[in-house]
Amino acid sequence: MAQHDSIFIAGMEDDRRIESRILEERIQRAVAEGYHRIEVQAHGQHGIGGRLWNTDGKPVKVEIRGFPGQRIGSMGAPGTTIEVHGSASDDVGWLNAGATIIVHGDATNGVANAMAQGRIYVAGDIGARGMTMTKQNPRFEPPELWVLGGVGDSFAEFMAGGVAVVCGHGSHYRRNSILGTRPCVGMVGGKIFFHGHQKSYSEADAKIVRITDEEWEWLRKGLKDFLQVAGKEYIFEELTHDRSTWQLITARAPSEKLSIRRSTMRQFHTEVWDRELGAGGLIGDLTNLDRGQIPVITTGDLRRFVPSWENHKYLPPCQASCPTGIPVQKRWELIRKGELDKAVNLSLEYTPFPATVCGHLCPNLCMEGCTRGKANLVPVDTALLGRASLDAVEPEPLQPTGKKVAIIGGGPAGLSVAWQLWLKGHEPVIHDRAEDLGGKIRSVIPFSRIPKDVFEHELKRLRDRVAWVKLDEGGVTEELFMDIRDRYEYTVIAVGAQNPRELRVKGYDRAMPALDFLRSAKRNRIGVGERVVIIGAGNVGCDAATEAYRLGAKEVTLIDIQKPASFGKERAAAEAAGARFVWPVKTEAITKKGVVLSDGTEIPANLVVASIGDRPDLSFLPDSIDTQGGFIRVGDDYRTSDPRVFAIGDSVRPGLITDAIGAGRKVASAIDAALRGQQETHDQLSVIDTARIHLEYYDPSVKELPDIHACSVQCASCGGCRDCGLCETLCPGSAISRKTLEGGGFEYVVDADRCIGCGFCAGACPCGIWELRENVPIG
Amino acid sequence: MEPVGNLHPSTLSTRDLPWRVLWKREKCTLCGRCTAACPVRAIGLGVHRKRTMEVSVGLATKPSNLYQVYHGIDQVTDPARACIGCGLCTQVCPNGAIMALRSDEADKLRFHVNKGGEPRRRGGRRNDPGSVLDRIKFVRISMLTDPALDAGRHEFEVRTLLGRILSPEESLRAQRENLWIPPVREIYPLMVGGMSFGALSPNMWEGLQMGVAYLNEELGMPVRMCTGEGGCPPRLLRSRFLKYVILQIASGYFGWDEIIHALPEMKEDPCAIEIKYGQGAKPGDGGLLMWYKVNKLIAAIRGVPTGVSLPSPPTHQTKYSIEESVAKMIQSMCMAWGFRVPVYPKISATTTTLAVLNNLARNPYAAGLAIDGEDGGTGAAYNVSMNHMGHPIASNIRDAYLNLVKIGKQNEIPILAGGGVGKNGNLAANAAALIMLGASGIQAGKYIMQACGGCVGSEADRCNICNIGLCPKGITSQDPRIYRRLDPEDVAQRLVDVFVSFDAELKKILAPLGRSTSLPIGMADALGIDDRNAAERLGIRYVV
Q1: What is the pLDDT of residue A1?
Q2: pLDDT number for residue A681
Q3: Domains and CATH numbers, chain B
Q4: Of A65, A266, A655, B393, whose CA is between 20 and 30 Å from A78?
């Protein structure tokens, strides 16, 4: 325990300055020994007066004279008072945790830096960076800095608590700013009272607020104490007589920092941007299009895509595949509606032989084209529909025109033209050398394939309405032809192909031409023997084979130089009868015994039939009508090089009966247009893309369609709306509705204001009616 | 997808496409929003037949089939309609039922996008996520050695100079003898790179310009934006905002008659004139605005009839030599504004950069050189040009800068760097790296589109349909039905956010270097990279 309460510690010893460390040790020892008043004669030592804790709890006073170094009272403890009799160097009260520090002169940079508790009085000015990083611990009173003069730059940076009072009295700074430049940057807490002129402070971080009465009383009381310590009580009145000369800066709360007032972009847009540029902004002078924001999903005009109900805009594949052009799908549709009669009668608008050809002879290309086949679904059966058409009632022909058209040849092609011209009100006249009309259907095709009564029934319907002239057995001659041509408005050549092609092998004349054979066979006027060889295994050859068996042959062989071209019913009938197909083989010669092949083998035969195709007999043609490769040359509309003469059927190119009938219809249409002085209009519709048809709606396990009603239900109705209402139900916006038209028709319509252009209708439509199309461009 | 009938070489399955659309039947409510929104119609409603066998236990009764039809969202496999992965379907789906996922192996589509012998064209960028700039580190952090600045605390004035700066001797002489002094602009070092009105939608373009004006007038940041080659709306030419605009002239010369007509009525000079000779994304190739994008508006601004394709040839067809191309064009452009406006060329980064730079160094009217690196984006280019043509920006900038040092003009001709800056999102770091390699300023385009327009393009070939006018976000479309999705105010606000945050980040890099007012241009000793070859090539530190 010390004898006295006071001790003097010199900063010099033996004329030498003692180190800061030694001075610190001596001060600490003095306190430990119980001294409460320590006088220090400083010589630049650092950190004097900090970190002093005595054990008795009484306050410790450190009086400093001389020239103290930096960091006086650094980490100062509560209960310590440090009084500097003069000016102080940098960082007075650095990290002060409770000491009271009094500086009677000025203090340089860094006063109160990071101070957390305690109080610093400076009776002069302070340098830069005072009161930075100060804070307030809630457990203690806030730290205080009292400056009689002014403060240097960057005051109160990152100040987080405590109170600074800057009196601005007698300051070197007073001509500029009493708080220096850029004070309060990063300030987040605490208060700064100041008296005097101040240019600026960080408004982003701090704000000037009104001094409350309570604060003013606190300030007055504090000032009294400060001035007393500083020995300047006499200026109290000067400093406090006008409360309005004091200002208070506090930190902005985090929420206030965010609300620093700037124009919103909306305001800037309308008040600055559009004001400078004009209404509509940057391009308001170039466009009046609305450019306001719209959602991604839009309706009406703003849809990128719009659905389009394209009913019957395209041909169904069945109709497009039919050379005759029969609207097969339309007929199924009528049957679905329960209008069987209409469906049946409709056929006679297209062909005079719906039962004969569609029902029996035609390979039904419509069924080959049927979309259902693409998904291995059984196609709808047109043959059923054809046979059901036997008793069809023909439409009323148009008003008679009195125009006469000559037709040479009464086979399928000629009869088709005649039928169509009759329907259109003209007077066709058929010229044929045969006993009766019908051409090959009558004379060549076996009864096994076309029941006599069916054909007779349909032929009679035609014969009753169309005139025909029986020619001599010799047929038409050039002279006769020219006579006919000159007498009629138009002439149509439909003589077919009657002359067999020559087989250039030895003994060819021993073979019987197929047409001759079939003609005789049909009348049962030929015997065939046990063995028959047919050269050429096409469909005519197959017919010959079938007939040969019917006439008693035991073994019929069809030979061909290549893979036989035969198909369909003819081939099936021949195979069923037992015919043998041999290919590829080349015929070397025809002998009495049979056919010798190029490899030397001999196929024995009682009868050899040559079925290698036929050529038209064109000996009657005048030079004005061109031919090509043995056939008559025609243009797209079957017109020959003589504009008043048309040619169709096998005389133009070999084909199916349906090809001949279709050609007849086209020629009739062309002649009709010409007779009426009109431009002919063909059906311009293209075939529907079958990808638009959805077959997933049909049952794949169905193996056969037993009757026409079943067929009508299973028809995919490609391109023709079957009025199922699926789209109406599916549409997510309920935009689609069915509208009944006057006259019983219907259509599906879209409410643009409900439609978003999703394309579901197009994606789901069983018949491919809906299509999603790009909307009309804007702008 | 639809079941396949016949196979063709280009018959692809969803698995062969880069993106597969995953659709969840149990979540889907069939609202149609996804198919209505899909830009390329990669999805559509499909019809499906579902078969269930009904077999009783013990086979007590004869088994039977139950067929049912359901509808679902199908992905189209036609290469022309392949999913682009934009994700708009996911965004519009109310139930989270649909999402495009990248296929787990290299797609096969790439082998089939040349129908009719026409090579693939697209927008976007190089589809290479690699970036030397991203690997550069700022290794000089001055904590105790230099004045340690605090990016948050200290006042920074981040500015650069655009224009020819005379040497001190020349400057003194010019002042003494009252000679012409080249115009110099003090601007923000990051600028919005050239994207044309036409390549960008009206709403996007106006939004960017509005944001630039806001930055200047509300925040005091002198940010500049280049028009790209598509003319400039007449109103902008006659407004005070023109001073924030760098007008570009390129080989198509679009809109320049309108600019000339506006000259007498201009309230302000433009910031500068950029003469485009090349573009980093497609060096050696020109531009083409397809006829269907040339609507009335585009036509009016570009001064052309509607509905015609607008090619910008790879070279300036009205000039016939480097002297003409560079010297005469620069001089003519200087004359147009009475020698008050800086004029500088922009080229693709190339091994011939130094030849151009040396030429410019001798030309008193050249205000700088903009170099556009291979990573730049574009609205439309051939795939091959984008992916395989061009020069990386880092070494080209470094070479150019060191060349200026060699001839003693490094402080006299600013070099602007662009092309994929911030391609992986690191805009400030990439920009700072380029500045320290020698660039005085940075041009950014693609980053701006991503950040300000919400472009979903990526370095992994996502979306990339800028060229066909179907941009899902409305950034590069001329169709009001699409571009009206974008509100110009939103774009402007995003631009402001981008620049303010860029500024904060850039300061974080500059502060430890002790720089608060002058940019550390060419201060490559602060850079390091963990690749010895790259370090050697760029003349920076090798650090591991």
Answers
A1: 44
A2: 66
A3: 14-118 (3.30.70), 132-509+521-542 (3.20.20.70)
A4: A65
Question: Matching CATH topology for A404-498+616-675 and A500-615?
Answer: yes
Contact B16, B76 (CB under 8 A): no
**Banded model confidence at residue A682, pLDDT cuts 50, 70, 90:** low
CB contact under 8 A, B481 and A775: yes
pLDDT in tens, B442-489: 999 999 999 999 999 998 899 999 999 999 999 999 999 999 999 999
Note the pLDDT of residue A678.
83
pLDDT higher than 90, residue B148: no
Residue B104 has pLDDT above 70, yes or no: yes
Domain parsing of chain A, residue ranges = 106-258, 262-292, 404-498+616-675, 500-615
Minimum CA–CA partner of B209 in chain A: A282
- Interface touch A777/B45, C-beta < 8 Å: no
A-to-B residue pairs, Cβ atoms closer than 8 angstroms: 179
Token pair for A566: 């035969």
Q: What interface predicted TM-score (ipTM) does this complex get?
A: 0.94
Nearest to A356 by CA among A468, A461, A433, A431: A461
Could you tell me if A281 lies within 8 Å of chain B, comparing CB atoms? yes
Q: What is the CATH number of domain A404-498+616-675?
A: 3.50.50.60
DSSP conformational letter for B200: B
**Which fold, A500-615?**
FAD/NAD(P)-binding domain (3.50.50)
Average confidence (pLDDT) over A522-546: 91
Q: Would you say residue A461 has pLDDT above 50?
A: yes
Q: How far is B437 from chain A (nearest CA, A)?
A: 33
A697 touches chain B (CB under 8 A): yes
Q: Coil, strand, or helix at residue A772?
A: strand
**B310-319 residue pLDDT tens:** 888 887 777 6
Q: Is residue A635 a contact partner of residue A603, using CB atoms and an 8 Å limit?
A: no
SS (H, E, C) B524-544: HHHEEECCHHHHHHHCCEECC
Tokens 């006063």 -> residue: A111
pLDDT at A210: 95
Cα–Cα distance measured from residue A690 to residue A257, given in angstroms and rounded to the nearest whole number: 67
Provide the β-strand partners of residue B124.
B378
**A770-774 vs A305-309, strand pairing mode:** antiparallel
Name the residue among A510, A476, A496 with its Cα closest to residue A540.
A496
Contact indicator for B375, B396 with CB cutoff of 8 Å: no
Report how far Cα A269 is from the mean position of its chain's Cα atoms.
35
Residues 6+ apart with CB under 8 A from A476: A408, A431, A433, A484, A495, A620
The pLDDT score that the predictor gives to residue B259 is 93
Say whether residue A156 is in contact with chain B using an 8 A CB cutoff.
Answer: no
* pLDDT given for residue A258 in this prediction: 57
Start-end of H helices in A115-252 = 213-230, 236-240
Cα(B390)–Cα(B127) distance, rounded to whole angstroms?
Answer: 14
Cβ atoms B299, B291 nearer than 8 A: no
In CATH terms, A106-258 corresponds, of 1.10.443.10, 2.160.20.60, 3.40.50.300, 3.40.190.10, to 2.160.20.60
CB spacing of A778 vs B479 below 8 angstroms: yes
CB contact under 8 A, A758 and B33: yes
Alpha helix ranges (H) inside B200-272: 202-217, 234-237, 256-262
Kindly indicate the confidence band of residue A569, based on its pLDDT and cuts at 50, 70 and 90. confident
Tokens in use for A778? 């804007």
- How many residues are present in chain A? 779
**CB proximity list for A175: less than 8 A, separation 6 or greater:** none
> pLDDT for A468-487, tens place per residue?
888 888 888 999 999 999 99
Residue A346 DSSP SS3: helix
